[in-house]
Design goal:
alpha+beta; Calcium-transporting ATPase, cytoplasmic transduction domain A; Calcium-transporting ATPase, cytoplasmic domain N; Four Helix Bundle (Hemerythrin (Met), subunit A); 7-stranded mixed sheet; 6-stranded antiparallel sheet; elongated
Length: 776
């Protein structure tokens, strides 16, 4: 056989022996051989026992040789070489029991490692399935559907409602409402005027529009996303086994000791004994067992790790990059505030807006309706509903002509409406107006809020060893910087497209092992480019999950902190087990080299060492849930109850803020009535809620949080809320005695109301972040 044929034969052997089926078969064969030989030995038939043990040993030699050859072809000299030499040595000196024990340990280690490192497909199927296959081109003869590959720059295309924009282009004739979340991650639709550029991959969220193509399919944005993901995944080198890193010094040391023992004693048995006790089962078993245990532990918390390499890299990571929308924020807008015109109540504004929006698919309409239902408002059935894309809906509700959406002619708005515009700008909020019978009745402010568990998650990540936290987002710089400031991030990169995110990830990888967390299709290339990609899989895109190494199956970002803590501890246990096992093996090697330990006894001693290191490795299954204290079922039920009440009390906060705003109109009777209504809501609804929290929720949480001192700061906030409420009550009693508010009262009363609103907002947020996020 010539050299090329021999090489081809070895390569085919390598491919064969690397299959999981053969590893499992080898495990079964060696286990059966050991058991059957043991039975023959107990029956007194030593010849049959040696035959069975020898066959079991012999079966392990070709696969082990294939693994060694595969490692050599990749430039690695793995610890499997010691096992091959030990197997061959035991056969040569007729120590068959030692050989089959080594074969069994070798098969077990390979099987465990294969189970830990088996990677799911990363073919980004969702990206490809979502890509359009055709386009509608307008010509003098009409509109014709053509394959996407035939679109040329300059073609006039028609994009219908709900369709994916096929290629990059420029809007012709009219504006368009677009869902750009696939590229930017932002959930709010964007209004693009005529003449503006539109990128492929975004979705038409309004009526049909015409698009002048400026690029072909292969040169368009969406095709670039797919290419980036493929290139980034190709750059991710496979993780070298933990065992192989230690083999760099353990392997030559073992060979040197075995060679010296043979040379000085003249006995090949001593050399084999050294190889037997040096067989790196602690490396082959302890590290995979600890890694698999860590993966198993993480899966119980809803953290699915694709392979052991992902857990190992996560345990060594020092830089974490996070997408904003859907990762640090909820990914869907929620009502921030409801502002009512004079003569209207916030609850009335919200009820009418939600009644009309019940049949609208718009993301803002969905948020308004959800908020109204959470506040238990009774919605009316609208009639004659029409919706104009990009402008809003109109119809009849309770006999009134109502419209919800945009309002033009800013110069015609009253002064209170101008203040709402300023608030929306300052808060980085989207805004939808309510008009009733042609007049403005109020406005609803919406914003994508932070996840309640995000602040705690980032604190625990820093405690777990993450040194650098960055946020990458396609959003505007102003709201992105606000989120970064609230969370204490080290850096914020805003206005990034998928290519920009990949560039940042690559830059950070040059400094340290880097983790990228995201949830959208636009995050898939960055997830694939990072050392470890983590996808928010509960509501995230299929593409991001397929491009990731770790998937969070629950919609909770605090599971990421759990995953890092598990990875750090599992990797530490793996290293402890491997190094401890090798230390014991070194001591046994010395004994074997001096002839104090024959091969069979050495194999049994090696088994004992294996048991010790495996038991130590299994500690990774029993780690504490350090990122979140354990709650009793009663405490968790209370959390759910009070979290629901927070939603119900949002109209009280709006009433307090609205009363403070109305004081600018002066001390009239209408203003007094507004303040009295806000005070009634405080007295009847909010203060009983705070009292119940203080006397029911906080005592139930104290044991899990470390004692009553853990809730002392929140209790102090309750005291401040009561103090401000009493001060407002005093102002109202003075006003009733005089028949109206006096001008001297306005400044202090306004201060009390604004202060109370601020304290309540902060207090609610603190409770939601510190307490409510503890519950499942």
């Amino acid at each position: 056989m010539n050299r090329s044929a021999f090489t081809a034969r070895l390569r085919s052997l390598t491919g064969a022996v690397s299959s999981p089926q053969l590893e499992s078969a080898l495990l079964v064969v060696t286990a059966v051989a050991l058991t059957a030989g043991g039975a023959a030995w107990l029956a007194g038939d030593m010849g049959l026992a040696d035959l069975l043990w020898g066959l079991g040993t012999l079966c392990a030699v070709p696969p082990a040789a294939g693994w060694v050859f595969a490692a050599l072809r990749h430039g690695r000299t793995g610890v499997d070489l010691i096992a091959v030499l030990a197997l061959a040595g035991t056969l040569a000196v007729h120590e068959y029991l030692a050989g089959v024990l080594i074969a069994l340990m070798l098969a077990t280690g390979r099987t465990l490692e294969a189970a830990a490192q088996r990677r799911a497909s990363h073919d980004l199927r969702a990206l490809l399935e979502r890509a359009p296959r055709s386009a509608r081109r307008r010509t003098a003869a009409g509109v014709a559907t053509i394959p996407l590959a035939e679109v040329a720059a300059g073609d006039l295309l028609v994009v219908g409602g709900g369709e994916v924009v096929p290629v990059d282009g420029r809007l012709e004739g009219a504006s368009a409402t677009l869902d750009e979340s696939v590229l930017t991650g932002e959930s709010l639709n964007v209004e693009r005027p005529a003449g503006d550029t539109v990128r492929s991959g975004v979705v038409n969220a309004g009526g049909a529009f015409e698009l002048r193509a400026t690029a072909t399919e292969k040169d368009s944005t969406y095709a670039g996303i797919v290419r980036l993901a493929r290139q980034a995944r190709a750059e991710s080198a496979p993780v070298v086994r933990l065992a192989d890193r230690y083999a760099a010094w353990f392997l030559p040391l073992t060979l040197a000791v075995a060679g010296l023992a043979w040379l000085l004693s003249g006995s090949a048995v001593r050399a084999v004994a050294v190889l037997v006790v040096a067989t790196p089962c602690p490396l082959l078993l302890a590290a995979p067992v600890a890694i698999v245990s860590g993966i198993s532990r993480a899966s119980r918390l809803g953290v699915v790790m694709r392979d052991g390499g992902a857990l190992e890299n996560l345990g060594r990571a020092r830089t974490l990059l996070l997408d904003k929308t859907g990762t640090l924020t909820r990914g869907r807008p929620r009502v921030l505030d409801v502002v009512a015109a004079p003569g209207w109540q916030p609850a009335q504004v919200l009820r009418l807006a939600a009644s009309l929006d019940q049949y609208s698919p718009h993301v803002l309409a969905e948020a308004i309706v959800d908020t109204a239902r959470r506040r238990k408002l009774v919605l009316s059935v609208p009639s004659d509903v029409t919706e104009e894309p990009g402008r809003g809906a109109s119809g009849t509700v309770d006999g009134h002509q109502v419209s919800v959406g945009r309002v033009d002619a800013a110069d015609a708005r009253p002064s209170w409406a101008s203040a709402v515009d300023n608030r929306a700008l300052l808060d980085g909020a989207a805004m939808t107006w309510l008009t009733v019978d042609g007049g403005p009745a109020g406005a609803v402010l919406l914003r994508d809020p932070l996840r309640h568990d995000a602040p705690r998650t980032l604190r625990h990540l820093r405690a777990a060893g993450i040194e650098r936290l960055l946020m990458l987002t396609g959003d505007r710089a102003e709201p992105a910087r606000e989120v970064g400031a609230v969370l204490g991030l080290d850096e914020v990169r805003a206005g990034l497209d998928p290519a920009g995110k990949v560039a940042v990830v690559r830059s950070e990888r040059d400094r340290a092992i880097t983790v990228m967390v995201g949830d959208g299709v636009n995050d898939a290339p960055a997830l694939a480019a990072a050392d470890v990609g983590v996808a928010m899989g509960a509501r995230g895109s299929t593409a991001s999950s397929q491009a990731a190494d770790i998937v969070l199956t629950t919609d909770r970002v605090d599971r990421l902190a759990d995953a890092v803590l598990i990875a750090v501890r599992a990797r530490r246990i793996a290293v402890q087990s491997a190094l401890g096992g090798m230390a014991m093996s070194l001591a046994a090697m010395a004994a074997a080299a001096f002839g104090l330990l024959p091969p069979a006894a050495g194999a049994l001693l090696q088994e004992a060492i294996d048991v010790v290191v495996i038991l130590n490795a299994l500690r990774a299954l029993r780690m504490d849930q350090a990122a979140r204290p354990a709650l009793t079922p009663a405490a968790e039920a209370l959390i759910h109850r009070f979290a629901s009440e927070h939603d119900d009390l949002q109209d009280v906060l709006e009433a307090v803020r609205g009363a403070a705003d109305r004081l600018s109109d002066g001390p009239g009777r209408q203003v007094l009535a507004v303040v009295e209504e806000a005070h009634r809501l405080l007295t009847e609804r909010l203060l009983p809620h705070e009292y119940a929290e203080e006397h029911e929720l906080y005592p139930a949480l104290a044991p899990a949080l470390g004692g009553p001192e853990a809730t002392a700061t929140m209790s102090r906030a309750h005291t401040e809320i009561e103090r401000l409420a009493r001060r407002i009550d005093t102002h109202l009693r003075l006003a009733r005695a005089d028949g109206a508010l006096s001008p001297e009262q306005l400044d202090d009363l306004r201060s009390c109301l604004y202060g109370l609103h601020t304290v309540l907002r902060l207090h609610f947020t603190q409770e939601e972040e510190s307490y409510f996020s503890l519950a499942q």
